[in-house]
Structures
1.
Amino acid sequence: MSEYSEQDLRYAAELRETIHREALEIIQKTRPEIREVTDDHPVEDYFQQYWDYPGKWYTIVAIPYGYKNRKAFVDTIVRNTLAANTSAKEKNGLERKPGRRRLSNQLSRKPTGYRELFTVETDQKKRSIRAVGVDSEGRHILEHYEEYSIGSAIGSAGAYYVLTDQEFRRYARMALVNGHISSEDHARFTSAISSDN
């Protein structure tokens, strides 16, 4: 604390508050009841040091280290806040694998004109991916793809399910929490979906 002047700390606090307001504005588009964000970085993290002419270290007010840019940092705060404000019931629904036993409307084959919109989650260990897309009829489709090996044989299997509006919103929320889509994309994907299902 002693290495920063009061003015420096005030500037850092103002930047932190501005970023928090920016993140909260995004969050409240889908969760208006949330009033504050989750940010693990104290004010002191909002300083960066760089070496510049004439061979001297300078301290500037900036986003914390470790983020590609301001947008990536804001998205992280949005994601952390949504995760922290997810109820136990919602978390149970998000963490439970909703595979075949939760979705009954499985298609017999890959739908015509299927186009992926976003990844829901991936499992590198199992070499599986779940993604949501849309087909030529405009239906939202969940794709569950998994590679497998039996002895020396290697193959893959895919299953496709038609999603209800409620299921589509749930998977979009999972993708947001898992960091596969930004809050802006989440809002864009779900804005056209009716909220009465």
2.
Amino acid sequence: MKTSSSLIYISCALAFAVAAAGCRTAAPAARRAGADFDPCAERLHDTCGRFLLYYSINGRLPDTLDELKRVDAQTVTPLVCPISGKPYVYSKDGPRPPGRAGRLVLYDAEPVHCGMRWGILADVAAEGRPPTLRVILVPETPVFAAEKQKKAG
């Protein structure tokens, strides 16, 4: 009886090995920029915490990034894109991405992430409630094309 169970085990293992040898995995697809591996997105995510801390103390978003920097001296997340090396753009009344509630309050100065920009979308809730902050990847058009037209006109 012991020999037959060993034969069954060996037969199953051999059948599995033959089947696996015929299987091939597809080449990995090119990865799109995503928050799970982009240092810029992670930096902006850390900055969301500073915004929420500032909001909890002052009941509003800061007028300038200098105000935000002073709120938490222990956390010194550089407010520059690690890819371009340029400082993030801040405006508490920033552009509105189409189809999204809220405004981009902090975002990349240039579209250096696969032709897009990372940014923090702030949706300010009802009075007395903190805003909802999300890190999102924003296409250059139509959001920033409209901003460029405003500055030019």
3.
Amino acid sequence: MAKQSKKSSRSKPKTRPQAAKKAVQRALKRKPAQSKAPKARGKVTPMKKAVKHAAPKRKAAPKKKAVVKTAPKPAAQPKSAQAASSIAAPTRHIPIAVQLYSVRDDCKKDLPGVLKGVAAMGYAGIEFAGYYDRSASALRSILDDLGLKCAGTHTGLESLLGDNFQRTVEFNQTLGNKFLIVPGVSKERSATKASWLDTARLLNEVAEKLKPLGLYTGYHNHQMEFTPLEGALPWDILFANTCKEVVMQVDTGNALQGGANVVPFVSKYPGRALTVHLKEYNAENNTALFGEGHVDWGSAFQLCETVGATEWYIVEQEGFAYPPMECVARCLQKLREWGR
């Protein structure tokens, strides 16, 4: 019996501990791991990872921007040249002449050729500063043949005084000229306020004698007329003490060189700028042509064509970046561009 009991005890299964049972239960509940197949793109394999670390990917070079070619910016221009683009159309037509002093060396060599040349350029007239040993009748014949008018003569004050007066008048009458302009006076007639007043008196006397003949005298400025003298400008001394028949021939460039803009003077003495010298001025370029300097052309034109009562624009060029004849041609071309 004892032997049989022992055998039966071995056949019974052993009871598992409670902890083991719980572990089995947890294992049975755990979901099996799912292996994900690598994606076709974007998956970095170990080999690729190694390569990535060995040779990092280069950054893409920035795209080059398309180069758009543009025209170069124009060089900075003087104020007058910038203002020229807004110069108003003329309120009335004023013919344009050229002062022959601009081409004086050419005139000495071939005066008829010069006159023919300026007529071909389109000038309507000329102003004399010397007659190159020709008589008034000979000059008048050339002008008539070319269709040119005499817009004036620069005539020394002494030529209008005393016995010279009648000869000078006859010469200009033959030329067909009515403007006998004094281009400046001696130091004796301009050194003091009293001497300027005496010059004014003489011009009044000449103007009075010319008036019945339909002729005028006048005065052309340089720089000294705008330098104060005894508390006043010689220009004001002269024109405040002369009659309205004494022409105020303003020179735009000379005045600006003397430190004055002619525009206020045209307004101050209305109806007296019957002939006007158009001349550019640039302190840094003595060969500047129209539009290359600092003259306020828009205001000058506007006043000449209104209160100034201007009858002739007269081009004068004294510095030369080109041959003189070419310079006066370029001046006229610029005036045409400005509508004059």
